[in-house]
């Protein structure tokens, strides 16, 4: 069968494809974006994208230049993203939850010529270390980006004659070394995900209103909010919600039909239901991704709101979800079955397929696979062969073809949907004057609870474990790390087990539990 | 709005206890300390504060946090919630 990407013309610009198809479907006066008290129709969205492209031309930007977009989920992010792609310029959305050091690194690594950000972020970044950056635009302040767009004449800007298989945008993903990696995606990638997941799996349609707690610089959020709704001409909500109470208020206000959450958000919404009851009556579909959803949360959500949560899993490298529980046939505690268009396999260490119930390495093939990591040849070669990627996840599948997450090949794990490297936390705790050695491990009661960070600590000679010292260590970490990475629990041990080569033996620590 | 008889004297102390339980050092906690800007609290910790207030004071405080809040501002919300709960016909939700 001809693939989705092969059905696209060789000369293909994905911004033009989504904009023109959404307007052609007699959709032009329908709402594309809800943002605070404002709405933008597809016609207005198209105008603002053209104007953003005009602004980029005025700055002298050229095809294949990079534009870094460090903004919360706002219309300006949407306009800048599509405006850049329209011209063949590469937008690089950056998550505003990144640290200053990470943003400085991404600006340098991507060699972005233009940065679009906020006054707050500009102040935090000063001075910007990247020698490649030539221009800055601010969303707020004296000359906001939106007013600049409004001042542009409504002149059609010809779209760049890009190819379907040339780079269109980058997303940065955190890496095991602590340095984010630029994931290069092609013009065809968003179409593939929209067809395979939004249309075939979720049955997204033009009457839907989507609401995503994951922001657009995350691959999950980019699909949920930016291109999947456009692919079917539906509306989406751009939100600055930062906790469960904000989300409850947003759902009350906008009445979304499809909710894209992550496990910790579902847990928080359930925890506050007596304080801030959620009106879930508008929702026809709830989705979870980014990390394993504990079965207990799935069941509690079902009992409370009479809704399944369609859990799935994807990666930044595949752009969106490739394993998903089908609506009406969810199997809680699993990541579901392969999304159409993806071949998902569990292989043993010699590369042979595992039988049902055997734990092996998850490898995935599909058309939305990245071109590679920017300037990371070794990591790219390690991850990819052909259209297949080694995800680094351990999985098994059952007789019904449902895949279940069983851990990682490396030491990384996820908390609040974000990657955590144990070494980063261990490095901080090693600085504590009473700590001799430390190992960080994730604990989730075999997937029954959300993952929490646990520190196993041995103390220097003469130091004594105590509840006060446990509190002190947690505070010490919290003052030096993003709070979600700080250990929730400290367990004191005499010695940490080590491998014959002297490394901390994490699997042996897991057996302590 | 009169708060005279309904203002608990312990809302700031309760808030401080909840925050120290979350692993925030007590010396960082002052009336004008900002939850996000100064303490870098994340979304789960904000929910923990609200659950702690429910558990310890019996009040339902929705800590919507699109705008950062100081400890004093949180206390005002606690006191408003206590007032509303003790005066259910007053019309303050």
The average pLDDT score of chain A comes to 93
Please tell me how large the radius of gyration of chain A is: 23 Å
What's the helix-strand series of chain B? HHH
What proportion of the residues of chain A is helical, as a percent range? 25-40%
* Model regions low in confidence, pLDDT < 50 over at least 5 residues of chain B: 1-8
Distance between the termini of chain B: 13 Å
Task: Provide the CATH topology of the domain at 1-29 and 38-164 in chain A.
Answer: Rossmann fold
Please give the radius of gyration of chain B in angstroms.
13 Å
List the strand order in the largest sheet of chain A. Answer: 2-1-10-9-11-12-13-14-15
Query: Are there runs of chain A of 5+ residues with pLDDT below 50, and where?
Result: none
How much strand content do the residues of chain B show?
A: under 5%
Q: Quaternary state, please?
A: heterodimer
Global structural class of chain B: mainly alpha
What is the CATH homology-level superfamily of chain B?
ACP-like
CATH domain class name of chain B: Mainly Alpha
Tally of helical runs of chain B? 3
Protein name (chain B): Acyl carrier protein
InterPro entries (chain B): ACP-like_sf
Organism (chain B): Drouetiella hepatica Uher 2000/2452
GO molecular function (chain A): acid-thiol ligase activity; ATP binding; CoA-ligase activity
Task: Give an overview in words.
The complex is a heterodimer of chains A (513) and B (93). Helix content of chain A is 31%, strand content 24%. Chain A is α/β, with parallel strands linked by helices. Among the domains of chain A are: 1-29 and 38-164, Rossmann fold (3-Layer(aba) Sandwich); 421-510, GMP Synthetase, Chain A, domain 3 (2-Layer Sandwich). In chain A, strands 2-1-10-9-11-12-13-14-15 form a nine-stranded mixed sheet. In chain A, strands 16, 17, 19, 20 and 21 form a five-stranded antiparallel sheet that branches. In chain A, 49% of the residues are buried. Mean pLDDT of chain B is 85; it is low at 1-8. Chain B has helices at residues 11-21, 43-57, 71-86. With 93 residues, chain B is mainly α. The two termini of chain B are 13 Å apart. Chains A and B meet through α10, α11 and α15 of A and α2 of B. Chain B: InterPro entries: ACP-like_sf. Chain B: This is Acyl carrier protein.
């Amino acid at each position: 069968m001809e693939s989705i990407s092969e059905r696209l013309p060789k000369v293909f610009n994905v911004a033009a494809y989504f904009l023109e198809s959404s307007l052609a479907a007699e959709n032009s006066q329908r709402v594309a974006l809800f943002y605070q008290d404002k709405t933008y129709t597809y016609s207005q969205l198209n105008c603002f994208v053209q104007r953003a492209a005009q602004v980029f031309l005025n700055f002298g930007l050229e095809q294949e230049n990079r534009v870094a977009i460090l903004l919360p989920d706002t219309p300006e992010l949407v306009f800048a993203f599509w405006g850049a792609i329209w011209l063949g310029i590469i937008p690089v959305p950056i998550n505003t939850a990144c640290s200053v050091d990470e943003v400085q690194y991404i600006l340098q690594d991507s060699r972005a010529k233009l940065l679009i950000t906020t006054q707050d972020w500009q102040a935090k970044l000063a001075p910007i270390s990247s020698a490649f950056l030539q221009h800055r635009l601010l969303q707020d302040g004296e000359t906001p980006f939106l007013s600049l767009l409004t001042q542009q004449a409504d002149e059609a800007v010809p779209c760049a004659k890009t190819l379907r298989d040339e780079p269109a945008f980058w997303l940065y993903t955190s890496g095991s070394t602590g340095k984010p990696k630029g994931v290069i995606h092609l013009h065809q990638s968003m179409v593939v995900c929209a067809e395979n997941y939004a249309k075939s799996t979720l049955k997204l349609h033009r009457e839907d209103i989507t609401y995503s707690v994951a922001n657009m610089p995350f691959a999950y959020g980019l699909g949920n909010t930016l291109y999947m709704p456009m692919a079917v001409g539906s509306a989406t909500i751009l939100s600055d919600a930062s906790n469960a109470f904000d989300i409850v208020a947003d759902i009350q206000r906008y009445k979304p039909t499809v909710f894209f959450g992550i496990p910790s958000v579902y847990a928080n919404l359930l925890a506050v239901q007596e304080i801030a009851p959620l009106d879930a009556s508008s929702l026809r579909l709830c989705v979870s991704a980014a990390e394993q959803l504990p079965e207990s949360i799935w069941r509690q959500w079902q009992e409370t709101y009479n809704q399944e949560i369609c859990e799935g899993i994807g990666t930044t490298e595949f752009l969106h979800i490739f394993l998903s529980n089908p609506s009406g046939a969810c199997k809680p505690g699993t990541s579901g079955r392969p999304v159409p268009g993806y071949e998902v396999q569990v292989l043993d260490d010699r590369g042979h397929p595992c039988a049902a119930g055997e734990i092996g390495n998850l490898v995935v093939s599909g058309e939305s696979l990245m071109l590679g990591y920017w300037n990371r040849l070794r990591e790219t070669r390690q991850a990819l062969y052909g259209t297949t990627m080694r995800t680094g996840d351990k999985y098994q599948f059952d007789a019904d073809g449902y895949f279940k997450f069983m851990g990682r090949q490396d030491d990384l794990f996820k908390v609040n949907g974000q990657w955590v490297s144990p070494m980063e936390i261990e490095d901080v705790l090693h600085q504590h004057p009473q700590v001799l050695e430390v190992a960080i491990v994730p604990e989730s009661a075999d997937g029954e609870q959300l993952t929490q960070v646990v520190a196993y600590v041995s103390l220097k000679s003469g130091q004594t474990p105590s509840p006060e010292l446990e509190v002190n260590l947690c505070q010490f970490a919290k003052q030096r790390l993003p709070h979600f990475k700080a250990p929730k629990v400290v367990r004191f041990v005499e010695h940490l087990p080590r491998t014959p080569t002297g490394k901390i033996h994490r699997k042996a620590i897991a057996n302590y539990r | 709005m009169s708060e005279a008889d309904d203002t608990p004297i312990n809302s700031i102390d309760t808030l401080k206890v909840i925050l120290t339980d979350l692993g925030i050092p007590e010396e960082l906690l002052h009336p004008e300390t900002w939850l996000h800007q100064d303490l870098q609290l994340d979304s789960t910790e904000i929910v923990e504060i609200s659950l702690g207030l429910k558990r310890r004071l019996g009040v339902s405080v929705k800590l919507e946090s699109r705008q950062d809040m100081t400890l004093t501002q949180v206390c005002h919300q606690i006191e408003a919630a206590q007032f509303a709960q003790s005066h259910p016909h007053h019309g303050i939700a």
